[in-house]
Each structure stands twice: as C-alpha cells, then as structure tokens.
Design goal:
Residues 66-278 form the LUD domain. By secondary structure, the chain is an alpha/beta fold. It has helices at 4-11, 15-37, 42-58, 60-73, 84-98, 109-114, 116-122, 132-139, 156-170, 182-199, 225-231, 249-263, 296-300, 316-320, 322-327, 338-349, 354-358, 368-372, 379-391, 397-410, 413-425, 455-463; strands at 77-81, 102-105, 126-129, 202-205, 209-211, 216-221, 235-241, 245-246, 271-275, 286-292. The strands form two sheets. It has a six-stranded parallel beta sheet with strand order 1-10-7-4-2-3, with helices on both faces. A four-stranded mixed beta sheet has the order 8-5-6-9. β5 and β6 form a beta hairpin.
Length: 464
C-alpha cells in the first residue's frame, strides 16, 4: 500500500465511493446520537469504561495469568503468540491436527491483522468468512474498509453483482434472478453459508472481551453467524488480543451497554455469545485460546499511546471523521482504518514504514473522534504524540530545523517583534504559494494574509 497522502488522493477522486461513505456514515452516526441520548448517565458509563480499561492495562500481567488459569481449568488450552508469524503457525498447526481443510470464521479483526486467511491458504486450508459484510469482501476479492461495516464502500448494486458472479466459485451459487433488494441479498447469503455451517468441523473466532475471573469469552454480533460458528463445529480456535481482558462480570456489564449504542446504535446486541472452556455434549469438544501480543506490549509501555489499547472496536470515531468520510478505509493501508487506525497501526507496527509514518498525519485534529469514543481515548493527543516520534526520525531534518528556528524566535520577544514588523512591511512581496516542499501544502490552501501591522503595535497605539 502507498502512504496515506497518495492513497487518499486517489480515493477522493472516486465520486461513487464518497457518496457511499457519506450516506452510510451519516446514517450510522445520526442513529448513534439518538441511542446515546436515551441514557442520562452516558458520561458516567463512559468514565467507568475508561477507568476499568486503565485499571486492567496497569495490571495486565496479573489478569492474563488469571485468564490462562481459568480457561485451563474449564477444559480449554491457552497458547501465547508474540507476533503474527507465531499466531499463524499455532492456528495452522491446530487445524492440520484435526485433519480438516476448511474452517468457518466469525468476523475477527485480530485474524485480519495477522493475515490468518492467507497463512491458512498457503497450507491448503480454506477459511470461509461468515459475517455478511466480510463475505461480500471475500467474494469480491476486496479488503475491509470499516471496523463495523467492512463493505461500507459497496452499494447494493455492487453487492448483487458480486453475489451473482462469485458465489458459485465458493459454494452454493446465488439464486437465479437475484435483485439488489436487501432481503434477497441477505437470503442469498444465508443459503450460501448454511451449508458451510452444517459441514464445518473447525471454527476460528476472535472475541470482544475475555472475563478474567472465569475465563469466559464474549462475542457480540447482529446476524447469528457467530452463534452458528461458536456452537456447531467440534473444534473452536479463538485468536484474541491481550488487551481484550476485563477483570469481572460486573465490569463486562459496563461494556455491554457502551458497545452496542456506540457501534450499531442499538440498546443491546441481537446476539451476545459467551463460552467458557468446553462442556460435554454442548458446543465444541476442543477449545483453544491464542493470546496475541503483536506489538501490544510495546504500545502498553508508551505512557501516552497506551490509552489506544482501551479501544473496544465500536467504529464510532470512523463515522464522525471528516477525513475517513472522504478518503475511505482502504487509504489507511491497514485493517484498522479511520482515527483509531491512525494511532493503533503505527503503535503495533512501528513508524519505520512509509504507510505507518504517514498515518499520524491523516487527521485534521478536529477532536470529533474523542467526543464520541465510549472509552474516552484522546485520539488527537496520541496523534500529536506520534507525529513527534515521526519527526525525530532521520530524513526529517528540514522539519526539525523549522521547528527549532520557530522556537528560537518565540523565546526572544524582541526578535519576534522585529520579525513581525519585517513581515508586515514586506507583505506586498509575499508569494501566494509556498516554494519547494511547502508547495504541496498550498495546492489546496490559501496562505493567510499578513496584517498591515503587528497586533502589539496596534495595541500600543490604541490602548496604551
């Protein structure tokens, strides 16, 4: 993927993409605002979610050990994965040990993060996505562009075409005469997926939360596909980021109020599935939990950036972001798009790459993301923090020199006053566009007009 400026420049020229995004994000955020307004104690819930997450992150080592002990006691097996390569190796080996060559999947951003589908395919194992939007993305040989609605960049006509042309290659074909009516599209997906649910012996999931005191995993979803994956197969493998832990069931209650209103604008999720280890005669007979680090420990060590690990993947920040609305999710070059992706991806992957170094600048710092975040992540603060890290890297000498020069002048009032007067007197000579590297900045912006005299001179003459 190219860096964000190049990818965004291409995306913003796609009129259909912008129309799809504008319609979808405005609809979701308006519904969310109405759902949140129903609760008089929303801000108290938000503060509680923040406090619980901060407490858990401070004692994450303790709670992760508690999770391992509880899951093991309930009949499950816990695996620890330091990075994506190790996680993929663990999951692939577990699937191969069953003798199966296909798995069904619950929507999981952690498995997208590590590229699990591609790793399984390299070993001759096919992973079938069962979330409706993820199915659309998979059939269309596409990439997700939104946390909650991965196919938000597609309209109904495009989805109908994808189903008609591609379903047969992956299993049951789309019905003859399929239209773009939502009910017909949903029914086509249901028929296509049902045979996979009934046939699959292995499922792969993520989890929205892990309750440390009992080792219980929680998945919330809206379609029922998750329930099918979590109950029908004989083997269940869950890949979960280490930050998804909450200490107790009482803590979980807070998030089961915050998440649905922030994501789907519902009072509660239609399907909330919970499982604890294995139970004879009920659900999978083998359960494996893969606890994934993959950069999270490094983010935890950053006193400013660690608040990003509070994220509960609700996507509210994407739906209010003016940059995301215009550029779309693919421009971020990561499975985590939007404002949260702009801070999470550089922390998980580092800022050495062109994509990662560009993401902290993919924001206007308007603060709308912070206002809607259900766990009060100050995304603008983290963006500025990451920009500082990027600016310290080699290759940013000009930027560092400019900041140093500005700091030198601002620390010396007499020099600042002289510079202001010089600028005012030479205002007729100022160019309308900046030269050199600054030219790109003025391609879409007007340089501010320099006043005829500095404010301090005006004040001295009129108010002294």
């Amino acid at each position: 993927m190219p860096a964000f400026p190049e990818a965004a420049a291409r995306a913003t020229r796609d009129a259909r993409l912008r129309a799809n995004l504008r319609h979808a994000t405005h609809t979701i955020r308006d519904k969310r605002a109405r759902a949140v307004a129903e609760l008089a104690d929303w801000e108290q819930l938000r503060a509680a979610g923040k406090a619980i997450k901060d407490h858990t992150l401070r004692r994450l080592d303790h709670y992760l050990v508690q999770v391992e002990e509880a899951v093991t006691a309930a009949g499950g097996t816990v695996h620890w994965a330091a990075d994506a390569e190790e996680a993929n190796r663990i999951v692939t080996a577990l699937v191969r040990a069953t003798g199966e060559h296909e798995v069904v999947k619950v929507k999981s951003m952690a498995t997208q993060e590590i590229g699990l589908n591609e790793a399984l395919a390299a070993e001759g194992i096919t992973a079938y996505e069962t979330d409706l939007a993820e199915l659309i993305v998979q059939l269309g040989d596409d990439r997700p562009s939104h946390i909650l609605v991965p196919a938000i960049h597609r309209n109904r006509g495009e989805i109908r075409r994808i189903f008609a042309e591609r379903m047969a290659a992956w299993g049951r074909p789309a019905p003859e005469g399929l239209t773009d009516a939502p009910a017909e599209l949903a029914e086509a997906a249901r028929l296509h997926l049902r045979e996979k649910f009934l046939r699959a012996e292995v499922a792969v999931s993520g989890a929205n939360f892990i309750v440390a005191e009992t080792g219980t995993l929680v998945v919330v979803e809206s379609e029922g596909n998750g329930r099918m994956c979590l109950t029908l197969p004989r083997t269940l493998i869950s890949v979960v980021g280490i930050e998804k832990v909450v200490p107790t069931w009482r803590d979980l209650e807070v998030f089961l109020q915050l998440l649905p209103r922030s994501s789907t604008a519902e009072r509660m999720n239609p399907y909330t599935s919970l499982w604890t280890g294995t139970t004879a005669g009920d659900g999978p007979s083998a359960f494996h939990l893969v606890l994934l680090d993959n950069g999270r420990t490094a983010a935890l060590a950053d006193e400013v950036g660690r608040q990003t690990l509070r994220c509960i993947r609700c996507s509210a920040c994407l739906n209010v972001c003016p940059v995301y609305e215009r550029a779309g999710g693919h421009a971020y070059g990561s499975v985590y798009p939007g404002p949260i992706g702009a801070v999470l991806t550089p922390q998980l992957r580092g800022t050495a790459g062109a994509v990662e170094a560009s993401l902290p600048f993919a924001s206007s710092l308007c603060g709308a993301c912070y206002e809607v975040c259900p766990v009060a992540i100050d995304i603008p603060e983290v963006l500025v923090h990451l920009r500082e890290q990027v600016a310290r890297r080699p290759g940013h000498r000009l930027e560092r020199a400019a900041v140093a020069a500005a700091g030198y002048v601002l620390d010396r009032p007499a020099l600042l006053a002289a510079a202001e007067r010089a600028l005012a007197r030479s205002r007729r000579l100022h160019p309308r566009r900046l030269p050199g590297p600054g030219r790109a900045w003025t391609d879409t912006r007007d340089l501010p007009q320099v006043p005829a005299e500095p404010f301090r001179d005006w004040w001295r003459r009129n108010r002294a």
